[in-house]
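Query structure, 173 tokens:
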């Protein structure tokens, strides 16, 4: 089975584009306990790219799709929200559903790129993490996942010709 880890970037100063030193140190710590990854993709924003590098992984691709979900999605699904909230809101087929499906399609293409038994990493942002995960697993029970993702948190998704399962990845700061 293939796996995809989708994680939020590390710590930055409020409204800053780059990680602060605490964020670099935290990402290094997280990176010591994850991987290896055959493919690493981040948003095009510096904090996501810097997180992957600080974790110890070379970045293969950056994409603006992972930067932000935009004003239309924000209006219907303002961040931060729980996984359950995002799972419910995408059932209404509005802007959040369209974005979540676009992310799911992109993540499926990533899984087609890697070999059986291997893994990929995506580093992105709060809200984008949750919407992408619920988009990949329609009908999944997210009730036990509680809070939105914090820094460097996310989920590991399991692929068997489609996304079939997931586990939340929480970290202690």
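Result returned for the query:
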């Amino acid at each position: 089975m293939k796996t995809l880890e989708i994680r939020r970037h590390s710590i930055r100063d409020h409204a800053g584009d780059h990680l602060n030193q605490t964020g670099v140190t935290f990402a290094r710590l997280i990176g010591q306990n994850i991987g290896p990854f055959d493919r690493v993709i981040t948003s095009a924003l510096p904090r996501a790219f810097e997180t992957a590098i600080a974790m110890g992984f070379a970045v293969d691709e950056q994409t603006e799709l992972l930067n932000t979900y935009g004003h239309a999605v924000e209006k219907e699904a303002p961040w931060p929200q729980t996984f359950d909230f995002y799972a419910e809101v995408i059932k209404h087929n509005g802007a959040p559903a369209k974005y979540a499906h676009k992310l799911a399609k992109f993540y499926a293409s990533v899984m087609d790129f890697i070999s059986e038994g291997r893994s990929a990493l995506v580093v992105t942002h709060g809200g984008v993490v949750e919407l992408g995960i619920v988009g990949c697993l329609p009908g999944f029970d997210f009730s036990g996942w509680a809070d939105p993702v914090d820094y460097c948190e996310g989920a590991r998704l399991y692929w068997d010709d489609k996304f079939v399962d997931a586990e939340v990845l929480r970290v202690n700061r």
